[in-house]
Design a protein that fits this description.
DHHA1_dom (chains A, B), 2 domains, 337 residues, homodimer, alpha/beta, Diaminopimelate Epimerase, Chain A, domain 1, six-stranded parallel beta sheet, 12 strands
Chain lengths: 337, 337
C-alpha cells in the first residue's frame, strides 16, 4: 500500500470511528458488488454501534435477498423523514458518477450538509466526494471496503464478511476475470480462515435461477443463427417472449456468453426488441482485429473494440439483417488488413 | 502441516531429487485435475533435468490441449519400448484405485521393478503405492503437488504452475465447491504473484465450447419437463440426438446443473439412452430429506442421498415414467416424515 493510500484509509477510518449517522448507497440497478459493498460496510458500522441507513434506488434484486441484512436495505420510496434524522455522513459505494446513485438517493443527501465519502474501483470516477478512495486496481469495491476495515482495526462481522465475499466473487466472475489479483485471493483466504462457508454461499450466489430464465435460454437457443462460416452467432429477444415468460429487466444479462464461448465464433450479437419498438443491439468480439465498435458507430452506437452496442430502428428482422451485413464487412476488412 | 505429512513430503522429495526416469499417469477419462497434476509434476521434473514419460490411457481431452506441454502426454497405444527404457519410478496422480489408471498404463509398470508413488486426494484411496500421499482435505491433487514441490524447494516453472492452477480451478468448480479451503486461495495468490495470467487461463479453461454442446443444450431444454408442481425437472438424451450432433462421451457432463439450479426444483433427473438400449439415469436432490439413492436402489442403482444413478431397461419413455413415479413416492414420504 502506498503512503497516500494509507493516509486516505486512515482519514476515512477516523470518520467511521468518530462520526455517527451514516447514509450508505450504491448505483442504480445494483449488482453483487453494489449491494455487497453497502451491506459489508453497513453491517460493520452497525456492529460498532453506529446509526446506519442503507438505501437503494432500485431496491435489492431477488437474487441477492439471501444475504443476511439485505432486508435492512431500504428501497428509496420507502424512506421516511424519521430515518433521515441525524445523518452526518453519506458513503457512495461502487458508483462511478454521482447521478448513477439515482435521483431519489441524491435527493436524500445533496444540500443536506452531509460529508460525502466516495469509495469505488471505476477508473472513470471523477472524485465527486469530499473524500475519494478510488482504487482502479481493485477488481471490486468490496475488496477495497474489506482492506479499509482491516487496515483501520475495525471488525468485520460474519454478515459483513459474507456480503463482501459476494461483492468480490461476482465482480471477478468467480475469480476468472483479468482484474482478479493476488490480493483478491489473499482476502478470500483470510475470509475462509475466519469462517466463511464457501460452498454454501457460492451455491446461493451461482446455483439458483428462476424457471423463466431457463425458458428464456431455451427460446434464445431456438432462434440462434450462425452465419459467415459459423464465425458470427446471433439471437433475438422479442417483446412477445418477454410478456409470455414474464421476464424482468436483468433476466437476459450475461446470456450472450453462451454463444460468445462457441469455439468457431468471432462475433456474438444479441438483438432485443424494446417496448418502444426500437432494437437494442449488444455485440461482442473475441478477436482484437474485429472491431465491433466500428460496426456500432455506423448505427449511432459505440463502446469498446471488443464490446459495443447500438439502438436501431425496428422491425427486428430488418435491424438484424443490416447489422449482420455490417459485421460481415468488418470481418472482411479485418482479414484483408 | 503435521509431522507425518512433512516426513512424507520429504520422503517423496528425496525420490524426486535422487532418482531418474519417471513414469507419470492419472485416471482414465482424465479431467482437469488429472492432466493438470501430471503436467504440473512432469514439467517440474523435466526442468530439474530428469527423464520423464507422461502417459494417459485415454489421451488428453481436446478441452485441455491448450495447456503447454499437453502434447508431451503420450496416449498409451503410442508408447514405444524405447520410451520405457530406464524408467525407475511410477507416480500415480489423482487416481483412487490402481485399476483406474487403465489396463494399458498398468501394463507399463506392473512387475517392471518400478517404485510406485501414489499421490491423491480421494478418501477412498486404499494406498496401493510403495509411498502414499493421500490428503483428502485437499480439494485437488494439483494442490498437493504444488505444496509438495514448494515444501521441498523444487522449482515450479510457468507451464507447471499453469497446469496446477487448472487442476485446482476445475476440481473446485472455480473455487465454489465446499472442498475449497483457505490454503487453496493462498496457493493461487502465490501463483498469481508468480506471474499466472488469471484472465487468459480462465478464459481458455471455461469460456470455450464446441457448437455441438450448445446444440445439445438446446435439444435438452426442448425436452425439459417439470412435474410435481415444478419440484421435479427431467430431460432425456436419445441415441438419435447423439448421432445427429456427433456428440463425444463427455459432452453431456455437468449439464444437469442447468435444471438442478432452478429455484423450484428439488429433484433433477437426466435420462440417457445408451447404445445397447439400456437407459442411464442420473439424479440429483437439493433437499437432504429427499433421498434419490433410495429411488435408484429400487432400480438396482445406488450412490449418495443427494446424487445417485441407475441403469434401467428401455424404452426411454417407459423408464422415465417409472423412475419419476418413484421420485414422487420419495417426495411424498419426505413431506410426511
Amino acid at each position: 500500500m502506498s503512503d497516500s493510500v494509507e493516509l486516505l484509509y486512515k482519514q476515512i477510518g477516523d470518520v467511521l470511528k468518530e462520526r455517527d449517522g451514516f447514509l450508505l448507497s450504491a448505483h442504480v440497478r445494483p449488482d453483487g458488488d453494489a449491494i455487497g459493498s453497502v451491506l459489508g460496510l453497513g453491517l460493520a458500522l452497525e456492529a460498532m454501534g453506529k446509526r446506519v441507513l442503507m438505501v437503494s434506488e432500485d431496491g435489492v434484486p431477488a437474487s441477492l435477498e439471501f444475504l443476511k441484512g439485505s432486508d435492512k436495505v431500504v428501497h428509496v420510496p420507502d424512506v421516511t423523514p424519521e430515518m433521515l434524522e441525524g445523518l452526518e455522513v453519506m458513503v457512495a459505494l461502487d458508483t462511478a458518477t454521482q447521478p448513477r446513485l439515482g435521483e431519489g438517493v441524491n435527493a436524500l443527501f445533496v444540500d443536506k450538509g452531509m460529508q460525502v465519502i466516495n469509495i469505488d474501483h471505476h477508473i472513470s470516477n471523477p472524485a465527486y466526494g469530499d473524500i475519494n478512495l478510488i482504487d482502479s486496481h481493485s477488481p471490486a469495491t468490496g475488496q477495497i471496503v474489506y482492506d479499509l476495515l482491516k487496515s483501520q482495526g475495525l471488525g468485520v462481522p460474519a454478515g459483513s464478511r459474507d456480503a463482501l465475499f459476494v461483492a468480490i466473487s461476482t465482480d471477478t466472475g468467480s475469480f476468472q476475470f483479468p482484474s482478479t489479483t493476488a490480493r483478491t485471493f489473499e482476502v478470500v483466504a483470510a475470509m475462509t480462515r475466519d469462517g466463511l462457508n464457501i460452498g454454501e454461499i457460492s451455491s446461493l450466489t451461482y446455483h439458483r435461477q428462476p424457471l423463466r430464465k431457463v425458458r428464456l435460454l431455451q427460446d434464445l437457443l431456438n432462434c440462434l443463427e450462425l452465419s459467415s462460416g459459423d464465425r458470427v452467432a446471433s439471437w433475438s429477444l422479442l417483446n412477445s417472449t418477454k410478456e409470455r415468460l414474464e421476464l424482468l429487466p436483468d433476466d437476459s444479462e450475461d446470456l450472450i456468453d453462451h454463444i460468445r464461448s462457441i469455439d468457431s465464433v468471432v462475433v456474438a450479437v444479441f438483438f432485443e426488441e424494446l417496448p418502444d419498438g426500437k432494437i437494442r443491439v449488444s455485440s461482442r468480439s473475441k478477436d482484437p482485429k474485429v472491431n465491433v465498435c466500428n460496426v456500432c458507430l455506423k448505427f449511432g452506437g459505440g463502446g469498446h473494440a471488443m464490446a459495443a452496442g447500438a439502438r436501431m430502428a425496428g422491425p427486428i428482422e430488418e435491424a438484424r439483417t443490416k447489422f449482420l451485413a455490417a459485421v460481415d464487412d468488418e470481418l472482411a476488412a479485418a482479414s484483408n488488413s
